[in-house]
């Protein structure tokens, strides 16, 4: 019997480790708060944040190796015959050939350059962008700021598929689908995997990225209410910490992601995963009684 319990616990721990992304806790109204209990912000351990799991744009780094030193030849160099003395001629300058302006050093141009420029120009807030499909120093700087803001790795300024996907989802989010309601409302577009916050019908936190429930653990659409908050909640089913936890239905809630948010091969167990900066902001704005509106559905 003891071997059976030990094996079962190992299996549960393995599931939590593999899936990880936003493992949720029990519904406090049905099965209790899931342990841990509320603690003060000052007493919280430093959340780990997203892990180093490589994303779609990430490339493996090559370990630099030292170049072998050339061996010195033991043969004596033959003397070079002296050239006949001539009057020094005036040096002639070769004509400078016009060259195409190269991309900024260390900032390669991506295959989605023009589309990313278009979406970043529409979003605003990341610096000047020229929509011409050609990488420039200004474009590179803006794309890097965008990648750092949404934790796209590596943040090298390249307009690759992941950068394009995130920019498109954010730029095409229609905040009006959340409705014009009084008070603070947390909105989630399950189709685009984006989330934002409104107050009295006005957007106070612009759309940002999220990851919701995977197949078999889908996050439901509907209108709910935050009814339990804990700055650091412990998940009994999956044995992981859930930083900045705000529960709204059936053991599901907002919390900081425990894995790389842009890894689409995994999902949550119904929770709404947030980047650390967004989880902190949502925690500051949230209250018990705050409204949560989820629309659409996640594909795949």
Enumerate the spans where pLDDT stays under 50 for 5 or more consecutive residues: 2-23, 30-81, 97-101
CATH superfamily of the domain at 22-33 and 175-295: L,D-transpeptidase catalytic domain-like
* Cα gyration radius (Å): 27 Å
Supply the helix-strand structural class: alpha+beta
Lateral arrangement of strands in the main beta sheet: 3-2-1-9-4
Give the CATH architecture of the domain at 22-33 and 175-295. Answer: Beta Barrel
Q: Tally of extended strands?
A: 9
Q: How many individual helices? A: 5
The residue-averaged pLDDT reads 77
CATH first level of the domain at 22-33 and 175-295: which class?
Mainly Beta
Share of helical residues: 10-25%
**Main β-sheet: number of strands, strand sense, barrel status?**
5 strands, mixed
* Quaternary structure annotation: single chain
Query: H/E series, N to C?
Result: HHHHEEEEEEEEHE
CATH topology of the domain at 22-33 and 175-295: L,D-transpeptidase catalytic domain-like
Strand content: 15-25%
Distance between the termini: 39 Å
